[in-house]
Amino acid sequence: MASATTKSPTQLALQRFRGHRLALASAALLALLVTAVICAPLIEWLLGHSANQVDLYNRLAPPSWLHPLGTDELGRDTLLRLLYGGRVSLLTGLVAAVAAATLGTFIGLCAGYFSGRTDTVLMRFTDSVIALPLLPLLIVLAAIDLTKLGLSEQLANAESVSLYRIIVIVALTGWTTVARLVRGATLSLREREFVLAARGLGASHGLIMRRHILPNLLSPIIVAVTLSIGSVILLESVLSFLGLGIQPPLASWGNMLTNAQQLIWEAPQLAIYPGLLIFITVICCNFVGDGLQDAFDPKAES
Amino acid sequence: MSSAGDTIAAAHQLSVGFALPGGQRLTAVNNINLEIRRGETLALVGESGCGKSTLGRTLALLQAPTTGTITVGGQSIAAGSRLPQAARRALYENVQMIFQDPVAALNPRQTVGAIVGEPLELFCRGSRAERQQQVVALLEAVGLGHDDLVRYPHQFSGGQRQRIAIARALALQPQLIVADEPVSALDISVQSQILNLFNELKQQHQLTYLFISHDMAVVKTMADRVAVMYLGEIVELGSREQIFAQPAHPYTAALLASVPDISSRKGKFGRILSGDPPSPAQPPTGCAFHPRCGYASERCRSERPQQQLLAGDHRVACHHPLRQADREQPL
Amino acid sequence: MSRFIVGRIAQALLVMVVMSVVIYALIGLMPGDPIDLMISADPNMTSADAALLREIYGLDQPLYRRYLAWLGNAVQGDLGYSRLFGQPVLQVLLPALGNTLILMATAFIIAIAIALPLGTLAAAKPRSAFDYSVNMYAFAGISLPSFWLALLLIMLFSVNLGWLPAGGMAAADASFGEQLRHLALPVATVATLHIGAYSRYMRSAMLEVLRHDYIRTARAKGASERRVIWVHAWRNALIPVVTVLALDFGFLFSGALVTETIFSWPGMGKLIFDAVMGNDFNLAVVALLFATALTLLGNLIADLLYGLLDPRIRAGGGR
């Protein structure tokens, strides 16, 4: 049974993932998007104008060499705005999903590992959060006046605050799925004999959780994070679309659509691009997540 | 080999209970006294659910006792008490456990080197390089090699995994090894190899085993002494010869009768067990075995039998221990 | 079982109480307060007037005092006045609830009517082209931004084709056809998004059931494949699906916030949005609490349904 080459479970999973064509194509597409978004300044330089450069004589221009996707209602270059908006949307998605998963992992790990009363309290809490109407509450959270929480006027109105705020909001509300997942898996892992063996060595709770439980939870967590990047991007876009998320002039795919709605009669193309990018990104995340799930759990039926 | 040496581990009036959902309590181990002598292999036998695994885990410090005291390597810990860190570490160092399921016993995300080296690392035995050497020596002792250090558990067969688990248990050179059904998940052909390994290692490292099993054939090849458990209590304790040739408790006799043995007539010692053991959450009155016992009398239904000493250190808890005549008369 | 029900209800009530505090506190953290708004509306007001007004309205009190006062009034049926609509909160809320119900119930029924057969047929022929298409559609459904779908529908049916109104709700005395024309796009938006997820639930529930022995027995007895699927398996597969649907129905009350806002459908979601954006404190608190209560109720019903439909849980006396 022991083969000559050494492959960790993760390497084996990656091998299986490579057999999943749709997921692989999605991952490639995502990689392309990320590259394009990172290269935004380069493209800016190539085109010779900046993303926020207003040109009122050139409003709603059709595609041209200078503006490959045309311009918006203020004469700004659509392509560049899309790329910079993509930076914001992708970054928010990734960071908020990871933050939410970290919080969820911590809560689920504590609940599952210590079980008993800790578990009951934490899981009742989780169930209650899950049972809340998320979007309306998010809107309230997004509308909060930060100066009333003691932040200085200057800080509260800084441009990047809307970015941090949305990340915090999503992390505060999005941890529940991972918490449940991690708790369930931890409950079964803690009874595994290799965990008992570590306890029989007098290993501390922290070490057991870090070394023996967490690494074995990694694959479901990675799947959950991948899937939730998609839903976070959706959430961000909704909030930004409603004017509560990322605040202009910082572009995000969501707030680009806010203006597009008003221009839907004159310039429908402005409503197409950002939405299409959101859609493609989210569906790719979902395909990749699905592929990873199959790869990590070869027994499960797809 | 199994001469009455000094005691290496002991349970004194030990009980272990669990709370069940719904407020019930399950007493898995009920007021047990047991001594394990240096250098012996003490087999703990009984049907599944009799509490033998719980007793083993308690002695391996994986389960807190409800009442009573356990002693390992001269260090005692009473139920409810908390030892200072150093004393706890000494306890953990003295006893290691080997589990039944060789798949679950090894962390799939660790390499073999990390698994076997973990005890050494936790107890700060030597430098990194010295530990590495020790791990290789341990792997060689159990029949694996240097090449296996960087492999992962999923690359090994069941028997090989059990060898890895044995190497890990050996790493700290503990005084007592608790082996909980270590071969029952393995193929028959592999079983004997692992049992031989157990015996070799015992010789080389002067080990003491608490060997938990439900398989009387395995017990017969391994044990110096045998303790028979039924429903949380030790009902009979004696040398291998005493238990196998002169079982005194009807339950022991029934266990032996269930072993297919070509050389002896079937049903030599009493009837083969029928039915399931009662739930330890609701033990019967009197002798716990009376509902399934062919010899049960009115006394057995009401009065709990105390342990009595037969020949030598052969002990039994039964109102009607089997005599030679009973054993030879097939039912 | 009864212990299970009582426990669930108690938990929901506790969450309700906690959420009323949380929501009240959060709304208090929104920009400005009612007096600020009055000041901006009346340039003649002095700061002394404002302080006086704050005292009259109790706004100089600490948060917990204000909450208790609000709670006391609320329990007596006084939910306050909506600043935005100039009406008692309840009179604004109830019609909105009705409008949401119309939109959501229609969308929900259409989504179920399409999704359950889709999911079942996909499960009947796993890995077929049809199964594959349903799966792709499901992925698209959960990945589509609702507001973008709404914009696309408006672009197509209102802007380009001019067939349907881009928003609003028909007047109460309008013809039934007119009502339907206004309902069409929002319903299409909500239904399209949910069909994907629902068909996935149905498919996996169906596949799970088809694995069981009694299905094999039914097949062995010579039952036609159609009978096996639609009679033997379908009923059992519905149990988990119904639970998930009940759960979702609770969320629908508030989940349509985006759709309602884009189509100017005067339902709960739009009401909450408008109240929050328009600093209508009384309305925002109560509307949010209503949405929370309805969602919790949906969860509760889903839990109880699950217990009722699954005999294993009923016999076991709880989870």
UniProtKB/TrEMBL annotation, chain A:
Question: What Gene Ontology cellular-component terms does the record carry?
Answer: plasma membrane
InterPro entries listed in its UniProt record: BP-dependent_transpt_permease, MetI-like, MetI-like_sf, OppC_N
Q: Which UniProt keywords apply?
A: Cell membrane, Membrane, Transmembrane, Transmembrane helix, Transport
Give a single Pfam family match: BPD_transp_1
**Biological processes per GO annotation:** transmembrane transport
Q: Which residues form the ABC transmembrane type-1 domain?
A: 90-289
Classification via PANTHER family? ABC TRANSPORTER (PTHR43386:SF23), OLIGOPEPTIDE TRANSPORT SYSTEM PERMEASE PROTEIN APPC (PTHR43386)
Name of protein: ABC transporter permease
Automatic annotation (TrEMBL), chain C:
Instruction: Output the Gene Ontology cellular-component terms.
Output: plasma membrane
What membrane topology does this protein have?
Multi-pass membrane protein
| Keyword Transmembrane helix among UniProt keywords | yes
Q: In the UniProt record, does the keyword Membrane occur?
A: yes
GO molecular function (one): dipeptide transmembrane transporter activity
* Pfam families on file: BPD_transp_1, BPD_transp_1_N
Cite the ABC transmembrane type-1 domain residue spans from the record. Answer: 97-302
Localization, UniProt? Cell membrane
Q: What keywords were assigned to this record?
A: Cell membrane, Membrane, Transmembrane, Transmembrane helix, Transport
Q: SUPFAM superfamilies per the record?
A: MetI-like (SSF161098)
For this UniProt entry, which segments traverse the membrane?
A: 12-30, 101-124, 136-163, 183-201, 237-263, 283-309
Q: Which InterPro entries match?
A: BPD_transp_1_N (IPR045621), MetI-like (IPR000515), MetI-like_sf (IPR035906)
Family note: Belongs to the binding-protein-dependent transport system permease family. OppBC subfamily.
The molecule here is called ABC transporter permease
Record organism: Gammaproteobacteria bacterium LSUCC0057
